[in-house]
C-alpha cells in the first residue's frame, strides 16, 4: 500500500516509529514484512515500530528501572486501596470503588500530563473545591506518597520520567522519531517531541492526508440493526469483488459487538465465494471478556462456592460439562438437580448438601466427591470452621485456585478443541499471572476478596480466539487511527456520536480542565476533534460509505452535522432499508387430530394406576393434563420457595389431625378436654409432627413459628367447628383403600370418617388448606371427585351409609365445612342436597346425587383408561395453575401460528 | 376558515415572556409544545450560555422531539424560509432569529452542537448529577441501570427474611413478628418486601428522617385526617340542626334500652361535639341516631333507638320531632354517606399490636434497603430510584445546592418543566433543592406547564396536588403566575362541545390538594364542526368480549375505507382488555402497530424456544424435552410420546440414544425422532463452547424453526433470543426462573411494516398523541386490583406522614387505620379515573367511539361496574344503555364454546424425509471434524517463576552488556539485589520467594561478570547486539525471532543463547550439555541460518551459555545438517 511507503523507508533506515495503538503497530509490522518479501529479502532486522507505551517501557528498561513500573492493573488496585482507606477513615460507603478509581486515575493522568507544560494544580486558590475535588486530592497525595515510598512509577509519570532521562543523557535519543496515528499530541507528548528535538532528533508527526479522489456515499438506515445488516451486505460484496482490505467502523462497538458479530457472520456465510469471504475466521476486533467463556464461567462458579450454596450454583455445576464427570455422569447429575428442586432446596450449607446427596441412594458419586473436595478446601483455608478465611497472598490464592480446579477435574472430560485450548492458556498465561502481579500492591487477603479480584480481571481480560483474517476488519472509531483500507464503511454517525459530548472529569475543577484544554472539556474542543476525526475517516480509504440510523425505538435520530461538510451541497442521502427477519419460507404445516393416546389394554383390566383420586380430578379438569401427568408422567421442574410451601403446609395439617383423632376418638372426648388441655395436647402433637418432617435449612428456622401457627389454627378449628357439631365417633383416620372405578384401581385415602350415633350414618371428611368451592362438588362438572369416590365406595371398619361428605377448609380466617349431606343439620353449614347447587340440575336427594356422581366418575375413569387426551380445559382458570401449557400448546388457540 | 378570536391570547403572550415565572394549565390540544418551544427560544435569545436553561420533559422521546423542533426552528430561520403563516409561526421565527444572532455573537455553534441544549428527562438530569458527583452521591460514578431490578430486590430481601442475623437480635425479632403476623408465610413477606423496595423512593425518606418516628407525630397526622372528616360533616350541620340533634340525641340515649348501642354515648349530652377525634364516639352516637345499620336514613323511630311507643309525653313529641328531623334531612339532600363515614373512622391511635408491627417494619425496611445497597454494589447495577434518591441527597449533603450546581458547571438560571401534573414528591423535592435560594426578580425564571386534568400516573407516584399547590403558593416560596389556556386546536367542535358538556360533572366541583381533586376547565373550540355524531356509544348489557372485539374490528375496517388515510387508535385501560381485540384484528388481516401490549410469554413459538433451551441445558427436564418432541419441528404424536414416558433413572437423552426404545416407535415417529435427535445431540455436545444465543439459535435453525412459524412469531423468537443473550452465563443459564420472569415482562415487537394508521395501546401510552378516530373498548371493565401492601403510607400536603401496617393475615376485618388510608387512596384514584377518561377522549381529532357494558340490576336497570371508566361516564351515556333492547341473554362462558381440542401442527412427512436425507449427508461431512485431544495440564507456580527468572536474567544480561559490558564489579552487582527483588515482586512473586530468586539472579550475574568467559560475552565486541530481533521467511512462513547475544570476534560471528537452567544434582555435566544442545539445536540452527543471510561475510559459531554455573557449550558445526 502506497500510503505507508515513506514510513517504511524511514523504518528501514532505523527511525523509531511510535503508534497510537497496538493495531497500527501490528499492521505496520505486517506491511513492512510484506514490503521486504516483495523486495526479495529472506531475512531482515525487525523495524523499530512500537506503540508509544512500549517504546517508553523499553527506554525504562534501558535505564535498568523496568522493575519500578506499575502495570495499569496494579496502579488501579493501588488507587482503590487509597480510596478504601479514605472511606474507612470517614466511615462512608461508596458503591463503585472501581469506577471511582478509574475516574481518579484518569484525573491524575490528565493533571500529570498537563503539568509538564506548566502549572496545573487542582489545589490552586483559583478554584473553589467541591467535596469531589477534595476527595481526589486526598487520594492523590496518599497515592503519590505510597508510590514514592516504594519507589514505584506509574504510567502517568512514565513519559515525564523518560523526558527527564533524555535530558540528562541517561538514554540516547534516536536520530529520527515518527509519531503515527495521533490525531493530536497531548501536552506531555508535545513535551517529549520538544525534548527529542532539543537533542537533535528529527521528529515527525505524520498526519493523515486525504486521498486525492475519495468516492464518498452517505446512507440513512431505518435503525441500528438494519444498518448493521446493510453494512454486512456491503462488506460481503466488497470481499467478493476482491477490492482489498475492507473495514467497517462501529462507534459503539462494545455495546453492539454481539449483534455485529452475529449479523456479519450470517451474512458472510451466505456468500457463494467462500474462499474470498472468510466467514469462519471473521471476528470483531474487540474480543470477548474471558469470564464469558463457558470454561472460565464454570471455574469461577466453582471457586465461588462458599460455606453455603444457592440452588442456582449447584444446578449450574451439576449441569456443567467442564468438570470431571460432567459428561459421563451428566444424566445422573441432572436427575439429582431435579430431585434437589423437589426437596425445596433454595440455599444449603455444603455439609448439609453432602448429607442430602448421600441420603439419596443413587446420587452420582463423583459429584459428592466434588462437594467433599470443596468443603475440605474451604476448611483448610480457614482459621476455623467459620467462613472467614485466613489471609494469604494473591499468589498463594492463585495457586490454591488452580489446585482446586485441577482436583475438580477442570476443564472436564471432553477432548479440548483448539479454541478450548486457547481459553485454557488465557487462564493460565494471562489471568493467573495478572492476579499474581496484583500481589505486589495488594496485601494478603481473604479468599473472597482474592476471588473477586480474579473475577474482575476475568471480566477485563479480553479473549479473542482465532486469528484475524485481515481482509475484513470491524473496529471501533479510535482503533482505525492511522490505518488505511481499500474500502471503508463508517456507521452510526448520528449527532450523538459526532460531535462527542462535553464531559468533564468530576474530580477536577471544570475551569482547570478548560484552561488546559483537556479532552472533552469544551464545545470548541469537541468541535475540533469531530472535524479531525471526520477528516481522518474520510481519508482512510479511496472508497468510503458513511451511514446513520434514523430511529432508535420510537425516537428519531439525526445525522452528524460533520458529515455534510464533506458532501456536495446538493447531495441526497440514500435511504436503505434492510429487514432483519428472514422472509417467511411459506411451508405448509400438516395438521392432524391427535387427541387420543395409548389406551390401557382392556384385556388386562382392571389397571392399577398410581396417583390416587387426583387422576380423576385432572381428567375432569382437562383430559390432556391427566394423560400427561399420569400416563406420560411428566411434570415441570419445581422451583424452590421461601419457607414452608403450600404442599408441606397441607401435609402438616393432615398429620397433626391424624395424630389427634387417633388419640381423641370421639366428639365426647373432644369436649371433655379443657381449653388448656386441648392446647397443650396440640402443642405436643404439632411438635412431634414437625420433628419428623424433612425440612430445608430455611424452613427449620421457622419451625417455632410454624408450630405456634399450626397449633393455633387447629385449636381454633376444633373449638369453632368440631366441638360445635353433634356427637360423633371417629371410625377411620387416613385409611388407605384400593377401590375400583371402571377399569381403574386406585388407592384412596379419606382423611377421616366419623360415625354418627344411633345408626345416623357416616360422614366423610377431607381436609383442605386451600380454598374449595361447593360448586366443584355438586355442580354440573364434578371437579372434586375424591369425596364422591369415598361416598360411593365406602371403606372398612364402619357401618352404615355415608350421609354426608364434607371438606374441612382449614385456612386461617377462612375455616369452614363445605360439603353436601343427605339431610340438613348433620353438620352445621353443610346443606342437604335439595338446598345445594345440585338442585339447579334437578337433583334433589342423596340417592340421585350419588347416582349422578357414579355416572360422572365412571365416565371419567373410562376416558382415562381409553387414553383420551384432548386439550380441553373445563374453564379458563384451569390452566392457571397448570405446568403443561407449553406441551399442550393451549396458547396456539389465541393467535395465528 | 373564519378567524376565531382566541380567548386566551393574553395568557399565551405572558407565557412567552421570559421575565415572568409562571405555571400554565394547558388542556388537551392547546398547543402546549409550541408554547414551550417559544419560551425556550425566547430564553435562548438572552442567556450567556445555552446550558443556563434546563428543560425537563416527561419522556426521552419528548426530549428528543423538543430538541428536534428547536433545531428545525433555528434552521428554518437560518434558511430564511418562511414556513407557515399565522401569528404562531411568525413569533417562533422572530424568536429563532434572535437566537441565531446570539449564537453567532457568543460562538455557540448550536446547530453543530445541539447537546448544549439542556433538554432532559428527570432521569437523565439525575444521571448527569450523579455523574458529576461520584463522591457526594456515594455511587462512585454513574452505575448501570438495571431493567430488571426485581432480581436485585429479591436477592436483598432473601438476605433479610431469615432468622439468623448475627449480632442483631432486634432484626431477628422483627422478622419473627412479621412472620407471625403473616401466618408464617415467608413467601408473602418476601413478595411484599420486594414490592416495597421497588417503591422505596416513596417511603424511604419517611423512615430514615429520624430513628423511628415519634408515635405522637404519626398519630397526630391521623387525628388531623379524622378531624378533617368531622369538620366536613360539621359544616353541613347548621346551629339549628345542632340544637335539635342535641335535644333528640340526649332524649334517645336516655331512653335507649340497649346500653351497648353507640347511641347511648349521647346520654346527658349538653354541647354539640367538636370536630376532634376525642369526640368521635359522640359523632358515632349521632350517626346511630340518624342511620340504619346499613347506612341509610332511618325510616322509623322505635323504642330500640330510644323513642318508646305510646302517647306519653315528652316521648310522643320527641318522637314526632325526630320523624320530622329525619324527613327534613332527607328532603334537604343531606348525605347519609357523610354521616356513615363517621362510623368507619378509626380511633387515631395505634393498637399495641399495630404499633409492634409498625416498629418491626421500621426496623426491617432500613435493613432491607441496606442489603439492597450491598446488592447494588455487588452487581454494579441500580434502579432508577437509586439514582434519583442519591442525586438529590448529594445536592442536599453539599450544604448549598445552588453553589454545588455552580461548581458542577450547572449554571441553571431558567427552568422549564413539562407535564408537571405527573410530578412525584421526590421530583418536587429535587426541584425545590435545585431552586433553593432563588428569589423573585433575581433574573432567574421558572416555567411550569402541564394539565392537571391529564394527571394519570399515580402508579408512578404522581401527585397532582403538587401542581395545584404550586399554582397557589409557588415552589418553595418562589412565586408563580397561574395562567390558563383554553383554545383547543386539535379536536373538531363536536368533540370539544361534548367534552365541555359532560366533563364539568364528571370532574369534581371543587379542587382539593389533599385528595388530588381537579376541576374541569372549559375549552374553546377552534376547529369547525364535522358531520356525524362526534361521540358514539356502543352499549352492551352483558359483557361479551368476543362480540365487542368483532364490532371494534368491523368499525376499524370501515374507518380504514375512508379517504385521506385517517389514523385510528384503540385505547384501553389495561392490557388484558386487548387480548380478544388483537386476536380479531389479526384474524381480519388488519395490520396494526402495538407497543408493549402483546405479552411474549404465551406465544407458542416462544414457549417452544424456551423448552428447547431448557432441554438442551438440562437433560432431566423431561417436560421440556417432551415439548421439544411435540413442537412443530418434530410433532411426535401422543402414542409415540408414550415411549418416552418419564422413568426414574433415565433421561430423555439416554432414551433418544437407545435403539431398542426407538424401535418401538411408529415408522413416522422413527423418522421424526431420527431427524430431530441428531440435531439435539449435536447441540448438547456444543454446550459451553459458544454463546447461549448462538447455541440455541443455530439449533433452532437446524430444526427448521423458521419454517414452522409465521413472520411475526419469528420476530418474537428473535426477541427471546436477545433475552438469552442477556442472561448468558458462560453459554448456559444460571437460573431458569430468571428466564421465565424476564420473559413475562416482554412484549411482541411492533410490526415494523405496519404503517401506523391503526395503533393499539394503553391510554397511558397515548398521552400526548392525537388520532382522527379514537376507539375506547372495554369501558365497563375494571382492572385487576392491586395486591395489598405490607404498609400503607400517605403523605398529606399539610398533615405530613400517615402510616399504617397491614392487618394480620386471616383477621376477618381490615385494620381501620389501614382502611382509612385505603380510602384516601381510593378517593385519589377515583379522581384519576375521571382524568384517564378525559385523556382518552381528548386524543380524538374527529370522532370517539365508546364501548362498554352495564349489567342489569334487580330492577332491570343497567348499572355500570364499580370502579370502571363507564361508571364515571355514566351521566353522559346512561340514556344509550337504557335504550338498548336486550339481545339474547344466553351468555356463553369464554372457552366453553370450543367443543373440540387442538389439532397437532407439524412439518409434513415429505419435508421430514427431505430433512432426514440432508442431515445424513451433513453427519458424514462433520464426522471428519477435528478435535485436538489435549492434555490439559495446569502448570504449578514453579514453572511460572522459573520462566520469570529466565526473562529477568536475560534482560539484566542485556543491561550489563549495554552498560559497560565486561567491566562490572561484583560490588555494583550487589547493588542490584534490592531492585531485583522488587522487580520480581512486581511481576507476581511473593516477597519471601522474591528474595530467594532475586538472590539467584544476582548470583548468576555475578557468576557471569566474574568469569572470564562471561566478561568476554558481555564485552563490546564488533557488531555486538543484544536481544537482536529478526524476521525472515522459512518455507513460505513468516518467522520472528530474537537472538540473545551476537558479535563478531576474529572474523567469526558468535551466536549465544542464555539458558538459566543447571544440571540436576547427580547429573554429569557432559550428559547435561548433550541433552541441552539436542534440545536447542533446531532453534540455534535457525539463528544461524538467519544471521548468515544478514551477515554472509562471517562464518557462524553457536553456543549456549549457562550463567548459573558459568557453563558453556558450543554446538559444533557437525551438529547442524
Ligand atoms: S394448560 Fe390448560 S389446556 Fe393445557 S394441559 Fe393444562 S389445563 Fe389442559
Number of helix segments of chain A? 31
Compute the gyration radius of chain A: what is it? 39 Å
Measured by DSSP, the beta-strand proportion of chain B falls in 5-15%
Q: What gap, in angstroms, lies between the N and C termini of chain A?
A: 55 Å
Describe this structure in words.
The complex is a heterodimer of chains A (897) and B (1121). Helix content of chain A is 45%, strand content 13%. Chain A has 897 residues and is of the alpha/beta class. In chain A, a hairpin with a 6-residue loop joins strand 24 (802-809) and strand 25. Chain A is elongated, with a radius of gyration of 39 Å. Chain B is of the alpha/beta class and 1121 residues long. Chain B has 42 helices and 26 strands. In chain B, a hairpin with a 4-residue loop joins strand 25 (1100-1106) and strand 26. Strand 2 (43-45) of chain A pairs antiparallel with strand 22 of chain B. Iron/sulfur cluster is lined by residues 621-622, 624-625, 871, 873, 878-879, 882, 884-885, 888, 890 of chain A.
Which tags fit this structure?
heterodimer, A: alpha/beta, seven-stranded mixed beta sheet, six-stranded mixed beta sheet, 31 helices, 13% strand, elongated, B: 1121 residues, six-stranded parallel beta sheet, 42 helices, 26 strands, binds iron/sulfur cluster
At a glance:
Chain A contains 31 helices and 26 strands.
Walk me through the topology.
The complex is a heterodimer of chains A (897) and B (1121).
Chain A: H1 5-12, E1 16-19, H2 22-38, E2 43-45, E3 49-51, H3 52-62, H4 72-90, H5 97-115, H6 131-150, H7 155-167, E4 176-180, H8 187-198, E5 202-206, E6 215-223, H9 224-240, E7 246-249, H10 253-269, E8 288-289, H11 294-303, E9 308-310, H12 311-319, H13 330-342, E10 347-349, H14 350-359, H15 365-380, H16 394-407, H17 418-438, H18 447-460, E11 462-463, E12 472-475, E13 487-490, H19 510-515, H20 523-538, E14 543-552, E15 555-556, E16 574-576, E17 590-592, E18 607-608, H21 614-621, H22 623-631, H23 646-663, H24 667-672, H25 675-692, H26 697-701, H27 703-722, E19 729-733, E20 737-741, E21 744-748, E22 752-756, E23 761-768, H28 775-778, H29 786-793, E24 802-809, E25 816-821, E26 831-832, H30 846-865, H31 885-888
Parallel strand pairs in A: 1-3, 1-4, 4-5, 6-14, 6-16, 7-12, 7-13, 13-14, 18-21, 23-24, 25-26
Antiparallel strand pairs in A: 8-11, 9-10, 14-15, 19-22, 20-21, 22-23, 24-25
Helix pairs in contact in A: 3-7, 4-5, 4-6, 5-7, 7-8, 9-10, 12-13, 14-15, 16-17, 17-18, 21-22, 21-30, 23-25, 25-27, 29-30
Chain B: H1 9-16, E1 22-25, H2 32-44, E2 53-57, H3 60-78, H4 86-106, E3 118-121, H5 122-132, E4 144-145, H6 149-158, H7 169-181, H8 186-198, H9 200-208, H10 215-234, H11 239-255, H12 280-290, H13 315-331, H14 336-344, H15 352-379, E5 381-382, H16 384-397, H17 401-407, E6 414-417, H18 425-434, E7 445-450, H19 464-473, E8 481-484, E9 487-488, H20 493-506, E10 524-525, E11 535-540, H21 545-561, E12 568-572, H22 579-587, E13 593-594, H23 604-617, H24 622-630, H25 638-641, H26 652-656, H27 659-663, H28 667-686, H29 692-702, H30 705-708, H31 711-727, H32 736-744, E14 758-762, H33 763-766, E15 771-776, E16 791-796, E17 800-805, H34 816-841, E18 844-853, E19 855-856, E20 862-863, H35 869-883, E21 904-906, H36 909-926, H37 941-962, H38 970-974, H39 977-986, H40 991-1010, H41 1012-1018, E22 1022-1034, E23 1037-1049, E24 1052-1058, H42 1069-1094, E25 1100-1106, E26 1111-1115
Parallel strand pairs in B: 1-7, 1-8, 2-3, 2-6, 4-5, 6-7, 9-10, 11-18, 12-14, 12-15, 13-14, 15-18, 24-25
Antiparallel strand pairs in B: 16-17, 19-20, 22-23, 23-24, 25-26
Helix pairs in contact in B: 2-4, 3-4, 5-16, 6-8, 6-15, 7-15, 9-15, 10-14, 11-13, 12-14, 16-18, 21-22, 23-24, 23-31, 28-29, 28-36, 29-31, 31-32, 37-40, 39-40, 40-41
